[in-house]
């Protein structure tokens, strides 16, 4: 190997072996503002749903909750080729603008049709962001902290969910008489505030250094690497680009779809199936439908829908706080424990939790029933947050080569959102057909299948560079 090859490897190795500075964490928080909006805009429907004054059939109700998922699936699949062509940064900026427009449109909706359009529009931004953010982070994150940095996306999602419910509580308690008029509009409209902040600040982000190298933008790549603490000469930058291309060719197949070689296809299969299990095991049911499901448990004989709904929102806020705390544990330990063990442990906890909640619904009543159901749901959310929620997004960002990372990640995100949409859409009819307890038992059975899948199909990737991960998938085909 020439000295050029050694130099080029040194530049990329230096990037992979850096200790994250405050700039890395600031950049990652900026990249994950979309995660906050993702959480806020998908969860606020749970608080507002009981107060939207428009007539809705069961199907329309399901679509209103799941409409963001439809837009997210479209946004994810569109974002892939666009971000591979135009870069990660530009798409992240556009996403923030779409978030803002969708939030304001929902706040000023005059009928359910406009509200559904607004939710679908927000979904476009959510889907695009979910396809891009972790890919962007993976392309600059040091290999030994890539898990923690990438899981900030999931943590910000949980914070967004929590903030959406806290805002709902403040609004409903401050103006209980406006629940069917101003309150639900405020819940939607306030989402535009962080979106505008993200729109402004994301314009100051550096582009992904690996994307710049892959696309021959050497001056900008040198500047981006310098911001990340890696100083390199023009010669080293060009050698880095050549080495990156050689590594991708070595893992690629032949012919028209050379970049989609056996290793990439296997990685895509793992990510897609992981995402499907992530959704169909039921996590978004308590987060999306929580207040709507729990309100009857608090209503008693009072008949006061606003009071019951506020109580249910309070309880759901507790569940989302558990989500935030548990995701922080995943953030702390994902790079120590590894992707496979933490995912398997998460799914085991979900199985136990769903059976506890189902048992409480069937065997108990009154306060005991509420307590046991809450314990089960909180354990379920905590298990998901620690082992499953962030792991899928981390794998999506780290297992694909730079040449197709955007497109491959978008396919994974699209699968995630289609599974999300299908589950949330059919849940009202499923609930009416067999009852919540048996729905929870079904989720537990699906989580058992997920354990088998992770144990047999998901390789461990902790501590590897993204290029090494690609070769690991290629060797297993």
Automatic annotation (TrEMBL):
Q: Name one GO cellular component term.
A: plasma membrane
Record-linked Gene3D superfamilies: MFS general substrate transporter like domains
> Could you name the domain of life of the organism this protein comes from?
Bacteria
**Which residue windows are transmembrane per the record?**
21-40, 60-79, 91-110, 116-138, 150-172, 184-201, 267-289, 309-331, 343-364, 370-395, 407-430, 436-458
Residue span, Major facilitator superfamily (MFS) profile domain: 27-462
Q: How does it sit in the membrane?
A: Multi-pass membrane protein
Q: Name one GO molecular function term.
A: transmembrane transporter activity
* Annotated compartments: Cell membrane
Keywords assigned by UniProt?
A: Membrane, Transmembrane, Transmembrane helix, Transport
Family under the similarity heading: Belongs to the major facilitator superfamily. Sugar transporter (TC 2.A.1.1) family.
Protein name per UniProt: MFS transporter
């Amino acid at each position: 190997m020439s000295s050029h090859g050694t130099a080029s490897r040194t530049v990329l190795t230096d990037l992979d072996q850096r200790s994250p500075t405050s700039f890395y964490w600031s950049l990652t928080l900026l990249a994950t503002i979309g995660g906050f909006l993702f959480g806020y805009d998908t969860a606020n429907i749970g608080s507002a749903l009981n107060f939207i004054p428009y007539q809705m059939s069961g199907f329309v109700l399901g679509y209103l909750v799941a409409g963001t998922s439809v837009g997210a699936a479209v946004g994810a699949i569109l974002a892939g080729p666009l971000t591979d062509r135009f870069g990660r940064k530009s798409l992240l900026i556009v996403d923030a603008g779409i978030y803002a427009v969708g939030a304001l449109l929902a706040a000023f909706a005059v009928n359910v049709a406009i509200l559904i359009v607004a939710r679908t529009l927000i979904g476009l931004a959510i889907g695009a962001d979910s396809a891009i953010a972790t890919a962007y982070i993976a392309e600059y994150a040091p290999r030994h902290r890539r898990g923690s940095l990438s899981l900030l996306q999931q943590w910000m999602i949980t914070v967004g969910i929590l903030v959406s419910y806290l805002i709902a509580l403040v609004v409903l308690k401050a103006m209980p008489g406006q629940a069917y008029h101003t309150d639900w509009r405020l819940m939607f409209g306030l989402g535009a505030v962080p979106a505008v902040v993200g729109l402004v600040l994301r314009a100051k982000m550096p582009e992904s250094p690996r994307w710049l190298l892959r696309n021959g933008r050497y001056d900008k790549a040198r500047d981006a690497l310098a911001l990340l603490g890696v100083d390199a000469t023009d010669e080293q930058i060009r050698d880095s680009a050549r080495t990156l291309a050689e590594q991708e060719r070595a893992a690629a197949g032949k012919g028209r779809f050379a970049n989609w070689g056996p290793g990439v296809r296997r990685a895509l299969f793992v990510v897609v199936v992981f995402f499907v299990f992530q959704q169909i095991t039921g996590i978004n049911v308590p987060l999306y439908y929580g207040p709507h499901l729990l309100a009857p448990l608090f209503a008693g004989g009072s008949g006061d829908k606003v009071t019951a709904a506020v109580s249910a929102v309070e309880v759901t806020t507790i569940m989302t706080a558990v989500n935030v705390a548990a995701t922080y544990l995943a953030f702390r330990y994902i790079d120590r424990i590894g992707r496979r063990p933490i995912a398997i442990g998460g799914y085991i906890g979900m199985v136990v939790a769903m059976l506890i909640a189902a048992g409480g619904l069937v065997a108990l009543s009154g306060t005991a029933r509420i307590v046991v159901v809450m314990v089960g749901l909180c354990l379920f959310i905590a298990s998901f947050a620690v082992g499953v929620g962030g792991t899928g997004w981390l794998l999506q960002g780290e297992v694909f080569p730079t040449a197709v990372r955007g497109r491959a990640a978008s396919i994974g995100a699209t699968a995630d959102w289609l599974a999300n949409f299908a589950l949330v859409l059919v849940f009202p009819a499923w609930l009416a057909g067999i009852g919540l307890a048996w729905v929870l038992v079904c989720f537990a059975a699906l989580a058992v299948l997920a354990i088998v899948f992770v144990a047999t199909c998901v390789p461990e990737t902790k501590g590897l560079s993204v290029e090494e991960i690609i070769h690991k998938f290629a060797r297993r085909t």
